[in-house]
Specification:
Radius of gyration: 22 Å
Oligomer: single chain
Order of helices and strands: EHEHHEEEHEHEEHEHHHEEEHEHEH
Number of helices: 12
Helix content: 25-40%
Number of strands: 14
Largest sheet: 8 strands, mixed
Strand order of the largest sheet: 1-7-14-6-5-4-3-2
Structural class: alpha+beta
Strand content: 25-35%
Length: 376
Amino acid sequence: MLTADDMTPSGTLGREESETLDALQPIRTVDLDEVSAATWDAVVPEDRRTPMNLRVWSDISLKSYGVRDKSKIILVGDPERPEALIPLMRRRDAIGWYSLLGNEGGGVEIPRRSDAAIPAIARALIGFGAPITLGDYPAHSPLIPALRDEARGRALVLTRPLPGLVKPWLNLDTTWTDPSQHLKKKTAQSIRRRERRLTELGKLETVFLTPSVSDVDALLDTALAIEASGWKSRAGVALATDPQQESFFRFYCRNLAEHGRLHLTFLDLDGKSIAMSIGELYGGTYWAHKTAYDEDYRKYAPGILKQFYLLRELAGKGVSRIDFQGRLDDFKRTWTDQGVEATKVRIYPFNPRGALALACDAGRQAGSMWTARRPT
């Protein structure tokens, strides 16, 4: 159930200092084209920058979802060198919700140079005047208590803690050239046993690719066909069942290939791909965007075997970290138990749009609770 956030502010600035900083950091709402890629990308220091912080991620998202002309960018500070940048995507609904771009997988904070911008970010979000969802936001971010402070008398900030972790990650070193060293003995033995059984069926090969732009679409056709063969298609979350998300990934992967950052992995059996990963190499980290396997080979766990080979390859190339993205599920838990605690954050301004959004959400939640409790 949605509950008002009751976190105690930790590590935030005092109110007098906050107000002083606010006065020094003007807030301006602009369209996407008013911010250059160089200005946008420089907001987050390089050692903390992620692909989701970059202008190209937001640009392609807005283009793919057809809301580019209705979305807004909030700049905090000097427009030529902003202290923070808040990319908001206007959703296609009757209420007019906005969502935080770049946090689709959860665990990503609003781009900023430092925490000194937090008070002004809170002021910008509360003063925006439309309902906003920040998605699965890091639970321990100083922004959450700052939002509650700023919202007094102006808006309602509701949160719902997630039961698990998001944005699971794993640090790699040379020992990961033999991933079995880091696995439970039973798990390592199971992987080797299933590998032997697969090799009895045919030639097993792992293919690692950094393709050219001209090869991207054909390779994605193969990857998406693997994903569509399994549970993701039945659940309606496969790329092939979501034209807008598929459009995003095709545009985005072409851009990655153009800059040499696209990394595709296929596990082939007699030339047929039975597992795949779509990833990106950026900042010394492998960002895992999509992974799937052919369910006809489920009993051989080809997805686990593909990941075993991929970790070995990445460690051998000196990649220092893998970011699995999304929720920490059973597949990712095979390799790591590290991730980010997150909470869903929604902002309802005290105006007609905010009241309508709150009423709709409350009604939807009540309906879900009734359905869950109804006798069968």
